[in-house]
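so i finally got all the pieces together for this one. its two components total, 262 residues if u count the protein bits. some of the lines might not be protein, just check the labels. i wanna see the whole assembly predicted at once instead of chain by chain like last time, that was a mess tbh
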Amino acid sequence: MGGVESLYFVAGGSIVMTIAKKAVVWGLFAAGGTLSSFLFPVLIALFLLIATGNVPEGLQFEQFHTFAASWLGKACLFIVLFLSLWHAAHRLRVVAHDFGIRKDTLVANTVYAVAAIGTVLAAFYLFSIR
Amino acid sequence: MSRNPYVRPISTTTWYMRHGRYKVYVLRELTSFLVMFYSFLTLVGLYALSTSPESWDAFLASQQGVGMIIFHAVALLYFLFFQTFPWFKLAPKAMPVQMGETKVPDNAIIIGHYIAWAVLSLFILWLAGVLS
């Protein structure tokens, strides 16, 4: 293989790579949007219940600690937090642009750093619940 | 082409105020602040949970009050009408479902989302001990 063909091959490869990367980024974003759309209303409702002083039984220390200490509980909490943070970060980047902030690199680094810190904290806290 | 084409001046900071549809768009996008806020609030809770029973109780106590009730109630309504429901409405366009030759009607996909959402929410409320 030589000349034009290999060039085409290289170009084709990089296009495939770009599409694959975009698919992952977009997939995580969409998954986060779906998860937060489905789960945040009930999460906010639980915080509302806590705010009224009627802490439900499952959120008392014993029960909730048992849930968060289980591998299934850990996995659920981590996936929801990680994907929601990623989703929100991506959208906040667009929001910044919509409000006339044109320093996209700075904004992107900031929001993704916040999401990354949140994700690491989630992993760390969940790991230390045993 | 003219050397100095006329560019209609549009504010980069207040453009969405010109049209109702743009305002709705911006309101929808702003729900991402709520996602960030509640994610980090949950993280603060997980930190308290990982520390001790006393700190978990202190976290729960710190979340009580009339101010928080109003905040959560407004946040809940805002989130439902500007994130959850629009997301469901968008679902058939984002993920069209085809069965054999026939396309699943948009309404069926939307109703499916609402049913799944209701079941999931009730399950979590049951898990949290609200429904028992």
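Residues 95-132 of chain B form one domain.
Chain B has a mean pLDDT of 93.
anyway lmk what u think
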